[in-house]
TrEMBL record:
A Pfam entry, by short name: ABC_tran
Top-level taxon: Bacteria
Protein name: Iron complex transport system ATP-binding protein
PANTHER family reported in the protein's UniProt record: ABC TRANSPORTER ATP-BINDING PROTEIN (PTHR42794:SF2), HEMIN IMPORT ATP-BINDING PROTEIN HMUV (PTHR42794)
Domain ABC transporter: 21-256
Length: 274
């Protein structure tokens, strides 16, 4: 993703840009365990929102529920005027793309073909890839810094490279709502910052972005809005300086921190101590 400024923009201004995601009462249990427990949250239009919380707090479960990978037991989600959870699958895939945690391909596939999977919702059932599809897939590979690896087998890539293939496939969908589950896993620090810069570019184009993140400082630096989960519930939501207070970080994560002010951005900077 070091090449974000050197390649053509592959994802144009979203045609239905500017929609807000509203989640109400999202609930999901496994057996007797309530994994997410009546989550209400607003994910602002055309902004990058961070979904935070300790391990097991329900971030992936919420994202999977919103993406339609896992059916929620209760609750709703609207994206603009559309009912996200009751939308036909194909229609949802034209608006929403989901980058899951390190999903390995289940069959041999090249990087380019993996990215082209993102075009399926946009073409008729029997049609193959068009020249436009292939051009767009190559452009998104450029945008995530993988242009040179288009013909490699996905199985031969490093974890960080594979993560970028998942992102490129999602971008090939030309989503207006992009959900990501810890997309910075496996990425080195430069690639993490490039990824967040790319998400910010997408938001500036009108895409609504919700991304689970573990790194609180990365979230504070890159997100316009944060939603903090604990034990399947929202404990705080809003701008970083409201959500990431020392008291709340201690209460939710059990660690002490000093909340400083970043000397250049003015955003919160957490110095964690135990
Ligand atoms: N299919 C499942 N069967 C049983 N338990 C599950 C299932 N899916 C999730 N859970 C449990 O629900 C809880 C929340 O899991 P989830 O993956 O949503 O958390 P998370 O916040 O994404 O965690 P992490 O930061 O570790 O990725 C965990 O305790 C997990 O073990």
């Amino acid at each position: 993703m070091t090449s974000t400024t050197q390649v053509p923009r592959a994802v144009p201004a979203a045609p239905h840009a500017g929609a807000t995601l509203e989640v109400t009462g999202a609930t999901w249990s496994v057996g007797e365990t309530l994994v997410i427990d009546g989550i209400d949250c607003t994910v602002p239009a055309g902004a990058v929102s961070g979904l935070l919380g300790p391990n097991g707090s329900g971030k992936s479960s919420l994202l999977r529920g919103l993406a339609g990978v896992q059916r929620l037991d209760d609750g709703g989600a609207t994206f603009g005027s559309a009912d996200l959870l009751r939308m036909p699958r194909r229609e949802r895939a034209r608006r929403l793309a989901f980058v899951e945690q390190d999903a390995a391909p289940d069959r041999p596939v090249t990087v380019l073909d993996a990215v082209l999977l993102g075009r399926i919702p946009h073409r008729s059932v029997l049609a193959g890839d068009s020249a436009h599809d292939r051009g767009l897939a190559r452009a998104v590979l450029g945008r995530v810094g993988l242009a040179a690896l288009a013909d490699r087998q996905v199985a031969t890539l490093s974890g960080g490279e594979r993560q970028r293939v998942h992102l490129a496939r999602a971008l090939a969908q030309e989503p207006t709502l992009l959900l990501l589950d810890e997309p910075t896993n496996h990425l080195d620090v430069g690639a993490q910052l490039s990824l967040l810069a790319l998400l910010r570019d997408l938001a500036a184009d009108g895409v609504t972005v919700l991304t689970a993140l573990h790194d609180l400082n990365l979230a504070a630096a890159a997100c316009d809005h944060l939603v903090l989960l604990s034990r399947g519930r929202v404990v705080a939501a809003g701008p970083a300086h409201d959500v990431l207070t020392a008291e709340r970080v201690h209460e939710v994560y059990g660690v002490r921190c000093d909340v400083l002010v970043h000397p250049r951005t003015g955003r919160p900077l957490l110095a964690l101590s135990e």
